[in-house]
Design a protein that fits this description.
Blueprint lengths: L2 E12 L2 E12 L3 E6 L5 H8 L7 E6 L2 E2 L4 H7 E4 L11 H12 L3 H10 L15 H13 L5 E5 L7 H16 L3 E5 L3 H7 L2 E6 L2 E6 L1 H7 L4 E7 L4 H9 L8 E3 L2 E6 L4 H10 L4 E7 L3 H8 L2
Parallel strand pairs: 3-8, 3-9, 6-7, 7-8
Antiparallel strand pairs: 1-2, 1-4, 4-5, 9-10, 11-13, 11-14, 12-13
Helix pairs in contact: 3-4, 4-5
Amino acid sequence: MGYILEVNNLEKNYGDFVAVNKINMRVNQGEVFALLGHNGAGKSTLIKMILGLVNPTAGEILIDGLQYGPKSKDIKNLIGYLPERMNFYDNLSAWETLTFYAKLKGVSSARCKEALEQVGLAEVKHRRVGAFSKGMQQRLGLAQAIIHRPKLLVLDEPTTGLDPIGILELKEMIRTWNREGTTIFFSSHNLSDVQELAENMAIMNSGSMAAEGSLAKLKHDYKLMTRIEVRVSTDQIAMISSLERGANTMGQFEIHDNTLSCYCESQEKMAILQRLLKEGVEIEDFTVEEPGLDLVYQQVMK
């Protein structure tokens, strides 16, 4: 389907300070893509350039094949944006706030009702925004971001201010919007949310692109192995030890009491278990520990 976002050799300098250093990045149409990095890594500057709010020092950005300049208005109609902190007029209701954004974006008030229902604010649409909790204001921010049905939805720390139930509901909203064809590009410090939602991700460090790709690709790139632990009955230890010493070597396993453990590529798990069964090992229980995004992130940032 092509790319909804292309970033080519992008740079942003503030005097002698390099905020973004020769970034290259591709986001496919219709995927969920996450941007990761420590505070100060350059994520916010990159997002602002993607939104056309900050001009790059060098390089180019293409949104659905369009470049900022003469096509800036067309590009902004393609994008919905939720900033990390959304500020509204306290004396306006949620309905008044959203209809204001609808007029700015050339959308009918019927769509306002739909958007408020999608974010769970239909029942309080006439309540003043000043009386809203932080989580409710975040939901209203989501409503204004999706009201014009953008092709690319950019979310900056979208779970900020949401309680656990709100976070679960937001994840389901993201999945729903994505199924309907919207590409989701979000930044987050919550690695478990990223691992759960994102098909591909980019990790920034000190203004540069440190790593990019799917979790499976990053695990492969950094040689992170899956750990298998198999528990057998105590009376099998002697048999296993003889297998380890014999022709059918089990040298890849470590034996501790009645537990066997080894590290392998993720796709080798079943072959290893089948091999144990073939050798006559009676398995009482087993666990598989896959390396997660937290371990990938630690390796990238070393």
